[in-house]
Amino acid sequence: MKVDPYEKAWMVAAVVLLTVFVATVVVSATAQGLHPPSHVETIDPVTCRSDPRFAELGVFDLEDGSVEVVMLAQVWAFLPGEVHVPAGVPVVFRMTSPDVIHGVQVVGTNVNATVIPGYVTEVVTTFERPGEYLILCNEYCGTGHHVMSGKLIVEDEEAGS
Fold it and tell me: Which ranges of the chain would DSSP assign to H, the alpha helix?
């Protein structure tokens, strides 16, 4: 079979591009490591409620001046359901799920994370504007998904509220 030289050139170019793409994926997967976003911290979803990292839920002050929010996303609620944090201070959300995949979205902010059973999800952000924010599950988690919500209250520390 006779193949035109231009067609041969395009076939060679296609093979070279495919080789480069495959090499890029392999290097990314091995050298940089594939894992969930942020750090990789695992937890047993069956015993996460009794794990020392999640035995006490709520808001905690850290030594560096930031605030840590320890939460569980479970069918069909966020625990705790209402969270109070100060404005203008870095907030570290540490979340896990004992049952199914959930999403955590703080409406009107840049907080949007997936919470996967077996992993600890960590998100760091700073809320500059005081106010009430709705926390929604944006990952379908079952028949009660539409009622899964929480409340984040960002308090203005200077105003004393």
Answer: 5-31
